[in-house]
Amino acid sequence: MRLNSITSAGLSLAGLASAAFMRGNGIKVGPIDETVQLRSVSSTNQSTTGWGTFEQLLDHNDPSQGTFSQRFWYGIEHWKGPGSPIFMVNPGEQAGTNFNKTYTTTARLPGLFAQELGGAVVILEHRYWGESSPSRSSPSLISLG
């Protein structure tokens, strides 16, 4: 029993050390294949992909702070209607531009999941990257720290 505890503690420390060493060296997972074209027209000649914006609260604890326009992209080629899954993708700390070229298609896992399960894919841009940044001012960016 004691050996298991010591082994577990040792493995935990090794994992923490590894995580601390790797911090800040993440891989950029953006849209790698620039040659992929959007498939935006279905057999009914209706678009199955698109993008838009919505008004997102600056501070969910204080709605009086106002809103900003947050971008999103979607792919509904495989969506089977209400009750079907929706797979959310966040590009992380980078702009969401061009993620729709592959992440809403079967070139990436979210698109494959959507195809297999009859779902849709929604890509939501991070609030401080790309065109979804509410403001570049210091007071606005203070919450990042």
Radius of gyration over alpha carbons?
20 Å
Shape: extended
What spatial order of strands do you see in the largest sheet?
Answer: 1-2-4-3
End-to-end separation in angstroms reads 42 Å
**Mind describing the biggest β-sheet?**
4 strands, mixed
Query: Uncertain regions: pLDDT < 50 for 5+ in a row?
Result: 19-33, 35-45
State the oligomer: single chain
Query: Architecture in CATH?
Result: 3-Layer(aba) Sandwich
Question: Could you walk me through the main structural features you see in this protein, from its secondary elements to its overall organization?
Answer:
With 145 residues, the chain is α+β, with helices and mostly antiparallel strands. It has one domain: Alpha/Beta hydrolase fold, catalytic domain (Rossmann fold). It contains three helices and four strands. The protein has a four-stranded mixed β-sheet with strand order 1-2-4-3. The protein is extended. It starts with a helix and ends with a helix. Residues 1-19 form the signal peptide. GO terms for molecular function: dipeptidyl-peptidase activity; serine-type exopeptidase activity. Keywords: Glycoprotein, Hydrolase, Protease, Signal.
